Amino acid sequence: RKNYHRHTAEQIRIMEALFKESPHPDERQRQQVSKQLGLSARQVKFWFQNRRTQIKERHENSLLKSELEKLQDEHRAMRELAKKPSRCLNCGVVATSSDAAAAATAADTREQRLRLEKAKLKAEVCMPPPRSRA
């Protein structure tokens, strides 16, 4: 088994520049870059594949974070509403404290579900993708 080695900063800089122009270089472009950088065409191919995966995962992670923030804001607002006594829109009767307690319990249950879902999503994002054999 060959030793693991990282690419040099210069190799990465050149591949990043090409990546900005073309995230999916063709065989000719990969061959050209591999000669220029002293790497095998396979190394270049896998660098681009890994870079595309990394970009995609970061984008998905960003979407999940914004969704989580939105849900947390919604949750905070619902908890604040649950704390306040509410008045029935039809008859005007003020809800009792036991009604408020029931609403708070429901909010706690929803919070637990959200925490579980967050943990599952976090595990999915952190879990490395299955390796494909190329």
Automatic annotation (TrEMBL):
Tell me which InterPro entries the record gives: HD, HD-Zip_IV, Homeobox_CS, Homeodomain-like_sf, HTH_motif
* Primary site of residence: nucleus
Q: Which UniProt keywords apply?
A: Coiled coil, DNA-binding, Homeobox, Nucleus, Transcription, Transcription regulation
CDD domains, from UniProt?
homeodomain
**DNA-binding region positions on the chain:** 3-59
Q: Which GO terms describe its molecular function?
A: DNA binding; DNA-binding transcription factor activity, RNA polymerase II-specific
| Location within or outside the cell | Nucleus
Ranges where the Homeobox domain occurs? 1-58
GO CC annotations, alphabetized: nucleus
Q: Which Pfam families match?
A: Homeodomain
Annotated coiled-coil segments of the chain:
54-84
Q: Which PANTHER family match?
A: HOMEOBOX-LEUCINE ZIPPER PROTEIN GLABRA 2, HOMEOBOX-LEUCINE ZIPPER PROTEIN MERISTEM L1
What family is reported? Belongs to the HD-ZIP homeobox family. Class IV subfamily.
- Name the record gives this protein: Os01g0760800 protein
Q: What is the scientific name of the source organism?
A: Oryza sativa subsp. japonica (Rice)
